[in-house]
Amino acid sequence: MGLLSKKDAALITDPLADNNPITIQVLGICSALAITAELKASIVMSLSVLFVLGVGNVVISLMRNIIPSKIRIIVQLIVVATLVIIVDQVLKAFAYDLSKTLSVFIGLIITNCIIMGRFEAFALGNGPWRSFLDGIGNALGYAVILIIVGFFRELLGSGTLLGFKVLGDPIEKTGLYALGYENNGFMLLSPMALIVVGIIIWVQRTRNKALVED
Amino acid sequence: MEHIELFFKSIFIDNMVFATFLGMCSYLAVSKKVSTAVGLGAAVIFVLAVTVPVNWLLDQYLLQPGALKWLGAEYADYDLSFLSFIMFIATIATMVQLVEIIVEKFAPALYNSLGIFLPLIAVNCAILGGSLFMQSREIPTLGLSLTYGVGSGIGWFLAILAIAAIREKIRYSSVPPALRGLGITFIITGLMAIGFMSFGGMLTGGDDEGKKEETTAVQVEKKEVEEKKVETTEEKAEELANNTKEITE
């Protein structure tokens, strides 16, 4: 980390835990919940957000002195929408099946509160390099939660990870299934995403009492 | 008939919050008090009812593959659908601004109650989500798209109203400290979503009416009797099991 000063490094590490965009700042929940039934979709979604937030933060930060504050929302929306179109077209070209699974949720990155929230809160008041680090940091914080939720939902729901049958074959009764283990299909349904995130928040706040709300 | 079907489907079965998690950010942030929740909910219904039909027209006459036929035969094979995100979000931002100006001019009282929420709505996922789902579900007519917009808006309104009521009540219960605030809201929303899943069989035939009333009753009970949450969930799980059984039958 010789490249980064301590203050800059904090921009990346803070959002990973104590200032996590999802569990503490409450930003970007929508997409985090809807697509986490599979680990692979979670990872792709995280990468898309990483790209959009990193590049978008730099662009907005470069333009911060020439955007009239009255129309800044619409300028921000146009920047995000352009970046999201790029992501969407790339996914359609190289990972068509996955882009079908993610369906409208790639488009919904545009209105993902993380993006607008970071633009408003950080990129409008800081230089490009720091904004870039902030974007990357927050996107990684988002990715951590998505991957944890995706991991548990896929593992407990369908007994696979990234499509590999890590717990054995449910039909031929190998591995854990030989002992009478059953997949919990309920984990694949959308309400469980909310409950898993709730539990993550619970664990996090139990470990760090300073985060407890009154 | 298809209007009624789509209307109830978009309120209950494909509820914006509980089935697709759209608009969660404002749902969590603005649900601390019932009165503000009502304001935001009303604004969402309003804006969805305007933007979904407008975006339907855009989609139909500008964006779909072959939509430019009306300009002449040489435009017939143009496909502008990659532009839909930017067109939709621009329409939404403009419509929100327009609605704000119109409401301010003609209904100052309404403006004062909705005022602060209207600009927020441009970046609410529920609004863009409404338009994107309208596109991906290929809603056939303008009238149906209006029904879909209004229905989804009402669904979102119901959801935020319910959670705001629960959060007002839950202040009097002893929630574990680490779960207070955000944590418990997530878990309650999860339980409510499980409840809403039971609407899944509503339009697939059978005793529609009875089932609808029954589940609404459970929902109301849940709202009022927070302490009995665990019992209600069990009830819901049972209901869910019955429901899936019925569907498979």
From TrEMBL, chain A:
Any idea where this protein resides? Cell membrane; Endomembrane system
Segments traversing the membrane? 43-62, 74-95, 101-119, 131-152, 185-203
Instruction: Report the membrane topology from the UniProt record.
Output: Multi-pass membrane protein
Q: In its keyword annotation, does this UniProt entry include Ion transport? A: yes
Q: Which GO cellular component terms, listed alphabetically, does the Swiss-Prot or TrEMBL entry include?
A: endomembrane system; plasma membrane
Task: Give the matching InterPro entries.
Answer: NqrD (IPR011292), NqrDE/RnfAE (IPR003667)
Q: What is its EC number?
A: 7.2.1.1
Q: Which Pfam families match?
A: Rnf-Nqr
Q: What GO molecular functions are on record for this protein?
A: oxidoreductase activity, acting on NAD(P)H, quinone or similar compound as acceptor
Q: Does the keyword Chloroplast apply?
A: no
Keyword annotations for this protein?
A: Cell inner membrane, Cell membrane, Ion transport, Membrane, NAD, Sodium, Sodium transport, Translocase, Transmembrane, Transmembrane helix, Transport, Ubiquinone
> Per the record, what are the reactions this protein catalyses?
a ubiquinone + n Na(+)(in) + NADH + H(+) = a ubiquinol + n Na(+)(out) + NAD(+)
One GO BP annotation is: sodium ion transport
| EC top class named in words | translocase
Q: State whether it acts alone or in a complex, and with which partners, per the record.
A: Composed of six subunits; NqrA, NqrB, NqrC, NqrD, NqrE and NqrF.
Q: Which PANTHER family match?
A: ELECTRON TRANSPORT COMPLEX PROTEIN RNFE (PTHR30586), NA(+)-TRANSLOCATING NADH-QUINONE REDUCTASE SUBUNIT D (PTHR30586:SF1)
Q: Which family does it belong to?
A: Belongs to the NqrDE/RnfAE family.
Q: Which purpose does this protein serve, as stated in its record? A: NQR complex catalyzes the reduction of ubiquinone-1 to ubiquinol by two successive reactions, coupled with the transport of Na(+) ions from the cytoplasm to the periplasm. NqrA to NqrE are probably involved in the second step, the conversion of ubisemiquinone to ubiquinol.
What is the protein name for this chain? Answer: Na(+)-translocating NADH-quinone reductase subunit D
Q: Could you tell me which species this protein originates from?
A: Tenacibaculum lutimaris
What's the encoding gene here? nqrD
TrEMBL record, chain B:
Q: Membrane: is it a keyword of this entry? A: yes
List all Basic and acidic residues biased stretches.
208-239
Disordered: annotated span: 207-249
**Which branch of life, at top level?**
Bacteria
- One short Pfam name that applies is Rnf-Nqr
Name its GO BP terms in alphabetical order.
Answer: respiratory electron transport chain; sodium ion transport
Q: Where in the cell is it found?
A: Cell membrane; Endomembrane system
Q: Which EC class is the enzyme in?
A: translocase
Family (UniProt): Belongs to the NqrDE/RnfAE family.
What protein am I looking at? Na(+)-translocating NADH-quinone reductase subunit E
Organism encoding this protein: Tenacibaculum lutimaris
Traced from the root, the source organism's taxonomic lineage reads: Bacteria, Pseudomonadati, Bacteroidota, Flavobacteriia, Flavobacteriales
